[in-house]
Specification:
Blueprint lengths: L7 H8 L1 H4 L1 H8 L1 H10 L1 H11 L3 E4 L4 E8 L2 E4 L2 E8 L2 E4 L4 E3 L2 E2 L2 E4 L2 E3 L2 E9 L4 E3 L2 E8 L4 E3 L2 E3 L16 H7 L3
Parallel strand pairs: 1-3, 2-4, 3-5, 4-6, 4-7, 5-8, 6-9, 8-10, 9-11, 10-12, 11-13, 12-14
Pfam family, one: Bactofilin
Organism: Marilutibacter chinensis
Family: Belongs to the bactofilin family.
Length: 181
């Protein structure tokens, strides 16, 4: 029992303070990673910035809106909208949705109803549930079996505003519409 005498205990207590000195070192190392974390956080945020430019706005199925839509992102219409849509992104008209107005968009997908003209689109897709009353001017047009359309379609023309390069080839209607005088 001489080992457990009180004189031996103070020696162990004297050894106890040196382990306390590494403890502040551990605390000192904790702030260093926290400084590094904010430095790495802005880098992914700047990488995600282009994705923010392509955000999609949704008009829900229980909404009816009248006005004008302009922007650089995508628009998904599930409700009813009366007015013109001018977006640099894509326009999707869902099943059961209805749009009354003109459309200018990069890509237009019609699964619902569109009553109005599509002008200067790169691509138009009329799905089997889609119905359209109006004219289309686009680079590429895809029409699914079962879809409905009433209007004129111009596609595949390389010039601006759907006009030909003056070759005179193609449908008569397209040549007549492209004539200036």
């Amino acid at each position: 029992m001489a080992i457990f005498n009180s004189p031996a205990s103070p020696q162990k207590r004297e050894n106890a303070p040196p382990p306390e000195t590494p403890t502040p070192r551990a605390v000192e190392t904790r702030p260093e990673p926290s400084f590094a974390s904010p430095a790495t956080a802005p880098a992914p945020a700047t990488q995600r910035a282009p994705a923010n430019q392509l955000k999609e706005s949704v008009i829900a199925s229980d909404l009816t809106i009248e006005g004008k839509i302009e922007g650089s992102g995508h628009v998904r219409l599930a409700g009813k909208f009366k007015g013109d849509v001018n977006v640099q992104g894509d326009l999707t008209i869902e099943v059961g949705a209805k749009l009354n107005g003109g459309v200018k968009a990069r890509k237009v997908i019609i699964a619902g109803e569109l009553e109005g003209n599509i002008d200067s689109a790169e691509r138009v897709e009329l799905l089997d549930s889609g119905a359209m009353i109006g004219d289309i001017k686009a680079g590429t047009v895809t029409v699914a079996a079962g879809s409905k359309m009433r209007g004129q379609v111009e596609f595949g023309w390389s010039g601006k505003d759907g006009k030909s390069n003056g070759s005179g080839n193609g449908k008569g209607a397209a040549g007549e519409n492209g004539a200036g005088a």
